[in-house]
Amino acid sequence: MTTQENLRAADYETIIPVSRANTKVFKTGQWSQKKPTHHPKLSPCREACPVGNNIPGALAHVSKGDYNAALALILQENPLPGICGRVCYHPCQTSCNRNQFDETVEIRSLERAIADYGCATPQICSSPTDNKTTIAVIGSGPAGLSAAYFLALFGHRVTIFESRAEPGGVLRYGIPEYRLPGEVLNREIGRILALGIDLEKGVRIDSERLDDLQDRFEYIFLGTGAWLPQKTGLSSENRETIQYGLDFLSHEKKEIFCQGKKNIVVIGGGDVAVDVARTARRLCGPGTVITMIAPEKEGDFPAIPEGLAEAEDERIRIIGEYQPIEFIGNSHLEKVRFVRTKVEKDRVTGRYTLLPGDGNDLLVDADLVLIAIGQLPDTGLFLPEIVDKDFSKVFVNDLGMTPSSRFYAGGDLTRKRPAVADAILSGKRAALSIHLKANGYDPEIIIPALTLGQGSSLSISAYIEAGLIDLKKVVQFAELNTLLYRKTGAEHGTKSPPETRRTDFSEVNGGLERKAAIDEAKRCFYCGSCIGCDLCFLLCPDISIAKEGDRIYRVDKDYCKGCSICATVCPRHVIEMEESQ
Amino acid sequence: MVEIKFYGRGGQGLVIAAQILAKAYFLIGKYPQCYSLFGGERRGAPVMSFLRVDDKKIYLKCEIKKPDRSIFFAPDLIDEDEIERTLKPGGFVLINTPFDRDHFKGIQGLRVAVVNASAIAQEEGIGTAINTAMLGSYCRVAGDIPMNVLEEVIRSSVPGKIEENVKSALQGYTMTTRISEGNDL
Amino acid sequence: MRDLLSGNYAIAEAVRMAKAQLIPAYPITPQTPIYERLSEMESQGTLPGVMVRVESEHSAMAMCIAASLAGVRVFTATSSQGLALMHEMLHFASGNRVPVVMGCVNRVLAVPWSFGSDQTDTLSQRDTGWMQFYCEDNQEAFDTVIQAYRISEATMLPSMVIIDAFFNSHFIEPMDVPDQRLIDLFLPQATLPERFDLNDPAFISNVVTSGAQFLPFRERAFTDMEKAKEIIREVDIEYRAQFGRGYGMVETVQTKDAQLVLVTSGSMTSTARMAIEALRDKGLKVGLLKIKAFRPFPSREVEDALQNIPKVAVIDRNISIGKEGIFCQELKSALYNSTARPRIYGYIAGLDGLDVSPEIIENICLEVLGKEMPDNLPIWVKGN
Asked: Looking at CB atoms within 10 Å, which of B171, C52, C199, C351 has the fewest?
């Protein structure tokens, strides 16, 4: 066996080529013209969100089951996620890129799930060297709460003055419990007040008090809302069987108004009208005919479509393209006469005007009429220079400031879009303006830079983490690599059955279960946000992308040949090829 | 050396039949060599199997051109001219057929045995698997394998319906009409 | 133990007893029964190794190479188109000096598409740096697989154990299956070098930047293949001592006084033995040379057996289009520098498993005996 032994003793590495050197000496990337950069961008949902929520970031946390991290992220932009997650008109879902693939991600339900299942405290975002100032916030509705929240996070001293017995404004006295349970409201307001904000309840501000506040506080934020009802202007409108939207909803005797009524007519097509009708339904019993009539076409009502659909489920009759012209009846109201109407939008001013339509009048039996055609602010108290000539609103500029430099305002008082999310935005904008001004920065430069995309919303986190994300580039559907996604339907929350709803003020929408919410969050494309999927790292043919931590990748420019595979495979359009220097 | 050639169609159990027979010869101390010829395997296609048996090692690695024994599972494959030309003297032909020996007039002067193996297999409930009936019949005609050895190999070789196959072989053995040079034995 | 096995099953049995640890394979007629039998053993729990179903023969060989480099004893089997697909990886195997043992069942290469035997598939792999052993029958196939592991692991060169489609692969014959205990004594568990060390990473199959770097590896492989001849002889002698059977790189039958020596390989050799016997009975001085080892080519043995023989007839079950039968070419080149070289007559027979009967072989011999000079081109034998 000598021959075999000799060969066995051979050093095997002499018979095959083995290299223990490496080829790093060949810097193969030095000739390439282009290099990839990880460049987070804006998602269309975030651009559309008035609050500026970091939706892809929060949903990425939810997809991993981490509700706490998701809530912490949401609280950077939104003081009231549990409320927005229930009542928002969710423009985010309209602009979701997933609409072009299968159907939108249920972002609103997910925000609710984050608020309900998550646990986090808002992060203070001031530095100790910042100047601190004092602010009086008048009104504790969404605008006031939002302004107070962000001012407190910036370290300023805030006191809220609320005329009613409890804080919340329209959230508490305007939105019924079946849409927004009181415990959710209390939880969210509690979290804001816990930042060290003083709240003075039952304090109505008159001109004397206003003078006093100007002495005590450096800045004053006005967020008193719009509580005066818009009237029809028809004669015999002033009787007890005719009530107005927010007045009715916040009225102690609303149950008594409804008792024994056979035919209730609701006039108006907005969210308040829907809430009025649905509240009446719960108070008057199932036998009563409730009819909701508005000048807009059915399908074009300004109210959120889900709310209208739920109203129809609760057997509320909906009729479009009519407006009232006469309340008929002597001592008791008997009927309302409507005329055919059409709504036209002026292309220049954007205002709506009501014009006569084609068709016969409509005579509707009515023993109670509830009018919800709009709300007006009470501006009588304020300095004339900040109020417009017909006293219909307070002027503010793009920084949330009134013509009087110590006064800022937001919410319905300024007659912008009357939605909770927009009110939150106005409070946030004013808070940031005040903070910047108090520290000697120019809000006119900084605030536009923090505006998201072409939209109007504003990011506080972008102010704190400047430059981490490109706020002007919005990821389009065509820029995504959707090869890795599969078409799936959205997860929808449960709803209580219409029969039980008609007598009950408990919440209609059950929201998403924890597991369903995680599944739904996984549907998100995370447009423009790196979620650490590692595809760039795994598929780089030159092993030129190093992973240096969670969602931290480094391109080794000495070896990257600029093949752009990483940019092509990135499902979220985070990576782009740029000319190398 | 004895050379045996099986003719049939896919599905009749021809390949297994040759292997069973090979095992039986192996058990009684012979040197068998068996193989099959089939192209693209499929039911109903013509198939041939071959078996050589000797007392010593067989070296031939080629086809059987002049068999001592020709076993027809499918009578429609009979080529009477070829049988007359190739069958070695002293050999025999075994045919699965419902007819009697007189039916095969073209092979006068040869030893021909017939058995209705298809009917037996039907009777025993094993469908077209006529191989065990044919093997029983073969034992009767050839006379060089004891039935108990065949039964033993069948029991260890067929994949299912063992009792039916054993019975089928016994029936084949019994029901064979042995004919020598045109006369009943 | 005596058993009745087909050639494919004999190889599968040898692989089981050799305790191959990893068997990546892909089925192809007529090799499929090897794959099926090994799978069956694995499902019954009698296979010491693990089978992996790969997506192609190319991948099967790639996996064999990687596992073997990591010190694992491996096996795979293929035929025809599968072997052709594997071609690139065959060079990687020999270049990486991995002792892979592969079962090959000779089958024609398309086109036309067919299933019968033709050695051109393995002979096309002549220059891949693999050892090739052509086996005559099932017993030899079994014995050669066992031997091949010893030879490959001693030389660090891969080997093919080759049988003919159908005449070996599907012929069922009695054979001896040795005791596992004796096999274990002859072929202990693999003690291959583990050439992957996680603590000292290395790149194998790397680029070299000049011919000067490249050449020594080829030269070394060539030298080791030459040395392998001695190892093949030693292993065979040891095997014969242990099991009573041996084959040599070539085998001669009655060549001493022969006027004509017939040269064959594979299953045809068995039939040729009968033909030679018949011719001797007729008083003709005819002998037989069986070539078993094709790579390394047994030039010395061939020369010893054939110089001073007046005539040699080579029957090839293969064809190199544009030249002649491949064994015939190899034989001619091996004998060219001999002092007294024979005249060599080339025949092509048995392609696609066409029957080569003793009569055909006898007729070839008679023709050659009566013919003064060989033809320039091979003679095609088309049947009886």
From this structure: C199
Inter-chain CB proximity A18 and C97 less than 8 Å = no
Of all residues in chain C, the one with the smallest CA distance to A16 is C96
Smallest Cα distance from A556 to chain C, Å:
21
Distance from CA of C290 to the nearest CA of B (A): 14
- Inter-chain touch C202–A16, beta carbons under 8 Å: no
Residue of C nearest to B33 (CA): C173
For domain C250-380, give its CATH number from 3.40.50.920, 2.60.40.2950, 3.40.50.720, 3.40.50.300. 3.40.50.920
Contact C274 B39 (CB under 8 A): no
Say if the Cβ atoms of A16 and C224 lie within 8 Å. Answer: no
CB–CB of A4 and C202 under 8 A?
no
**C164, C173, C175: best mutation site toward chain B, by most B Cβ within 10 Å?**
C173
Check CB contact under 8 Å for C172 and B35: yes
CB contact under 8 Å between C202 and A19, yes or no, is yes
C312 to chain B, closest Cα gap in Å: 22
Among C173, C273, C384, select the one facing B33 at the smallest CB separation: C173
Q: Which chains touch C (3+ CB pairs under 8 A)?
A: A, B
Nearest CA in chain A to C202: A20
CATH of B2-184 among 3.40.50.720, 3.60.10.10, 3.40.920.10, 2.40.30.10? 3.40.920.10
CB A139 within 8 A of CB A147: no
Contact residues of A toward C, CB < 8 A: 1, 3-4, 7-8, 10, 12-20, 22
Q: Is C190 on the interface with A (CB under 8 A)?
A: no
pLDDT in tens, chain A (581 residues): 444 554 554 567 778 888 877 777 888 888 888 999 988 999 999 999 999 999 999 999 999 999 999 999 999 999 999 999 999 999 999 999 999 999 999 999 999 999 999 999 998 877 777 888 999 999 999 999 999 999 999 999 999 999 999 999 999 999 999 999 999 999 999 999 999 999 999 999 988 899 999 999 999 999 999 999 988 878 766 677 888 989 899 888 888 888 888 999 999 999 999 999 999 999 987 789 999 999 999 888 989 998 999 999 999 999 999 999 988 887 788 899 999 998 887 777 767 788 888 888 899 999 899 999 988 898 888 888 888 877 788 999 989 999 998 999 999 999 877 799 999 999 999 999 999 999 999 999 999 999 999 888 999 988 888 778 889 999 999 999 998 899 999 999 888 888 888 778 899 999 999 999 999 999 999 999 999 999 999 999 988 999 999 889 999 999 999 999 999 999 999 999 998 76
Q: Measuring CA to CA, which residue among A264, A263, A230, A236 is closest to residue A372? A: A230
* B59 CB within 8 Å of a chain C CB: yes
CB contact at 8 A, A321 and A341: yes
Of C115, C267, C384, the CB nearest to B61: C267
From the list C325, C381, C323, the residue with the least C-alpha distance to C354 is C381
Q: Is C208 on the interface with B (CB under 8 A)?
A: no
CA A550 to each of CA A524, A533, A534, A537, A547: distance values in angstroms, whole numbers, following the listed order: 19, 10, 10, 12, 8
Reported CATH class of domain A134-227+377-438: alpha beta
Question: Which amino acid is it at C287?
Answer: G
Question: Which ipTM score applies to this complex?
Answer: 0.91
**For residues C105 and C165, is the Cβ–Cβ distance under 8 A?**
yes
Give Cα A155 distance to the centre of its chain: 24
Give the homologous superfamily in CATH for domain C2-243: Thiamin diphosphate (ThDP)-binding fold, Pyr/PP domains (3.40.50.970)
Write the DSSP string, A57-115: HHHHHHHTT-HHHHHHHHTTT-S-HHHHHHH---HHHHH-GGGGTSS---HHHHHHHHH
Angle made by CA atoms B46, B52, B54, in degrees to the nearest 5: 170
